[in-house]
Write a structure and sequence with these properties.
Length: 257
């Protein structure tokens, strides 16, 4: 069964300066060969800014940059960005393959405590992306608090969360990532930013990759920029499902509008 070499880039973000952020990640991606999936934080071109969508880099510019690095590293490049569309602004998780295919997931749960729901349109479609034999569920930050939305229907192997999750609630971030792995019997990877944003909010990162049993495989040192690497195994995942088939006793849920 295939393995997946995954890297998380736990990094600071320049406030509302798309080109500066791309230049920063250029330096990191130049030394990121040999990976299958490279993950950047939520809103990696701007930071978590409500007013930025109208002046943020266009989707064409962001995707072209991600595709360039996908080709150079022979990896899928993933991360969310503030994107202006004809129907309004969205917090869009982009996953770009070296061959050029672009997968999109728009953040469903908008963080009302920062008025995100007044500036961005909520996504309506859950997505699962197939990549090199793996099925990946992309999710964004506040989505982590809503387990029905990430319920494993037997259709994914890895739940991927990108975030700008503030330091005062770091314990929530760490606990919920582990819970999502355990309850869904899937790998979970959470890539959070570090540093201070333009509103004075601090971020400790605490990025981590967790196995289906809830064990942390690798974690970022709080507040420190880092690249976190791990190799995930479908053999381990499927052996665990066979030994502990809790999904057979799961309740069914339906989602309302």
């Amino acid at each position: 069964m295939p393995t997946l070499n995954i890297s998380l880039l736990q990094q600071p973000l320049a406030w509302m300066d798309g080109e500066a952020n791309l230049a920063h990640f250029d330096t990191l991606l130049a030394d990121a060969g040999g990976r299958d999936l490279i993950v950047l934080p939520e809103m990696f071109t701007t930071g978590f800014a409500m007013e930025t969508a109208g002046s943020a880099l266009s989707q064409d510019r962001v995707v072209a940059w991600m595709r360039q690095w996908a080709v150079a590293t022979d990896a899928m490049i993933a991360g969310s960005a503030a994107i202006h569309t004809a129907d309004g602004a969205v917090n869009r998780f982009l996953l770009v393959e070296p061959q050029g295919q672009v997968h999109c997931y728009d953040k469903r749960h908008l963080f009302r405590m920062a008025d995100e729901h007044h500036y961005y349109q909520a996504g309506q479609q859950r997505r699962v992306v197939a990549w090199r034999g793996w099925r990946i569920l992309p999710q964004v930050c506040y989505d982590l608090r809503f387990p029905v939305w990430s319920r494993n229907l037997g259709d994914y192997d890895l739940a991927l969360y990108v975030a700008n999750w503030p330091a005062p609630r770091a314990n929530h971030w760490q606990t919920l990532l582990a819970a999502r792995a355990i309850e869904n019997q899937a790998y979970v990877a959470g890539c959070n930013r570090v540093g201070t944003d333009g509103n004075g909010h601090q971020y400790s990162g605490d990025s981590r990759i967790i196995d289906p049993m809830g064990n942390v495989l690798v974690q970022g040192e709080p507040g420190v920029a880092a690249r976190l690497d791990a190799t995930l195994s479908l053999d381990v995942l499927r052996q665990y499902h066979e030994a502990f088939p809790a999904a057979l006793d799961a309740d069914m849920f339906s989602l309302g509008k």
